[in-house]
């Protein structure tokens, strides 16, 4: 028997899971095309933010690889809010477009909430519209934010039935923490959402059979905050200096201290290669789901939960 110090968690391979998911989506897309529906995703990018440009490029490539139509709208940073709203209205009305994603962050002169609110909820593949937030919270079919949907898929793949599990989410953002809580509640977990005002964060984390870290603080959660055998989903993507790789070099780390956590947890997502690849795959899943619903078809269950 290995002692506790030798124990290594199973590494949850999000990259491989996302590749398989994209393969299944491509299958659903070709089945839809055979019925005369060609799912299409429109991505709107305002300005030149370098990270956003990389995301948009990757989304475009993976959308095409899945057999979907990809419509890119790149607008200059000074684009007036009214012009952006007019574009969203045109995309809402365009029958070739089933999913609309406005890449965040938007420039400061644009009211992001107003723009997100203008997207037709049936095409809101980011799942940020209040109608989808409300539908998720009340148990109705919804378009669900991509990153937490990806986390849920990884959890269900590893654990199967999540019913009764003690789940702790660290972080309460609208894009990760809160929708993650709704999804885990839907799966009948006992859910705790921790945040910067939580009194005993280490003790709260130690209760978790499922620990989801979505904080944005590099390696904040050490192994001794983790219950032995727990499943750890690390959403954090943090760039930290890596002088060992050369001057000015960086590396990516999560919100969990991987090395110490991997000696305690039952399974853990790495950074990179864990949750990250799931986000775009779930965007494609949501686009396929939206196209199905818009055309009165039943979306495949393996893309929505
Ligand atoms: N893998 C992906 O595709 C993906 C997608 C989205 C985000 N991310 C990453 O996930 C992380 C979180 O993103 P986000 O957008 O949810 O971040 P966010 O909006 O900044 O929210 C961070 C949350 O963490 C909480 N928090 C901050 N410091 C804390 C502390 N010391 N103790 C406990 N809680 C603390 C905050 O609490 P308060 O509410 O009390 O301030 C807040 O609820 C980031 O690293 C981001 O890059 C990854």
Task: Outline the structure in words.
By secondary structure, the protein is α/β, with parallel strands linked by helices. Helix content is 39%, strand content 16%. It is built from ten helices and eleven strands. The strands form three sheets. It has a six-stranded parallel beta sheet with strand order 1-11-8-7-5-6. Helix 2 (50-65) links the parallel strand 2 and strand 3 (69-75). Helix 6 packs across helix 10 (276-294). The structure holds NADP nicotinamide-adenine-dinucleotide phosphate. The site of NADP nicotinamide-adenine-dinucleotide phosphate has 25 residues, from helix 10.
Core attributes:
single chain, 305 residues, alpha/beta, 6-stranded parallel sheet, 11 strands, 39% helix, binds NADP nicotinamide-adenine-dinucleotide phosphate
Shape: globular
Residue windows where pLDDT falls under 50 for at least 5 positions: none
The average pLDDT is 96
What structural class do helix, strand and pairing data support?
A: alpha/beta
Residue share in helix: 25-40%
The H/E string reads EHEHEHEHHHEHEHEEEEHEH
| Spatial strand order of the main sheet | 1-11-8-7-5-6
Determine Rg (CA atoms, Å). Answer: 20 Å
Bound molecules: NADP nicotinamide-adenine-dinucleotide phosphate
Strand coverage percent = 15-25%
Determine the number of helices (DSSP H or I, runs of at least 4 residues).
10
Q: What is the number of E strands?
A: 11
First CA to last CA: what distance?
Answer: 37 Å
The major beta sheet can be summarized as: 6 strands, parallel
């Amino acid at each position: 028997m290995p002692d506790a110090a030798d124990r290594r968690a199973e590494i949850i391979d999000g990259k491989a899971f996302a590749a398989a998911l994209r393969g299944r989506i491509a299958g659903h897309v070709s089945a839809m095309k055979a019925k005369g529906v060609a799912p299409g995703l429109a991505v709107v990018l305002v300005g030149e933010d370098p990270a956003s440009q990389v995301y948009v490029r990757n989304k475009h490539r993976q959308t095409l690889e899945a057999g979907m139509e990809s419509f890119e709208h790149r607008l200059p940073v000074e684009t007036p809010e009214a012009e952006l709203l007019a574009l969203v209205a045109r995309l809402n009305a365009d029958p070739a477009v089933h999913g609309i994603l406005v890449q965040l962050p938007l420039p400061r002169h644009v009211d992001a909430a107003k723009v997100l609110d203008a997207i037709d909820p049936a095409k809101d593949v980011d799942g940020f519209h209040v109608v989808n937030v409300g539908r998720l919270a009340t148990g109705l079919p919804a378009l669900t934010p991509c990153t937490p949907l990806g986390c849920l898929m990884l959890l269900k793949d590893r654990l199967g039935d999540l019913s009764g599990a003690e789940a702790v989410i660290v972080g309460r953002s609208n894009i990760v923490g809160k929708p993650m809580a709704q999804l885990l509640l839907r799966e009948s977990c006992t859910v705790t959402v921790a945040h910067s005002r939580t009194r005993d964060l280490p003790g709260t984390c130690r209760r978790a059979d499922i620990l989801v870290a979505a904080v944005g603080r590099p390696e904040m959660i050490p192994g001794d905050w983790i219950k032995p055998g727990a499943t750890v989903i690390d959403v954090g993507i943090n760039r930290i200096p890596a002088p060992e790789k050369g001057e000015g070099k960086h590396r990516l780390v999560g919100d969990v201290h991987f090395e110490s956590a991997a000696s305690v947890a039952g399974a853990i997502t790495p950074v990179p290669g864990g949750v990250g690849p799931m986000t775009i795959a779930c965007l494609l899943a949501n686009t396929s789901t939206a196209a199905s619903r818009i055309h009165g078809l039943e979306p495949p269950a393996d893309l929505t939960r």
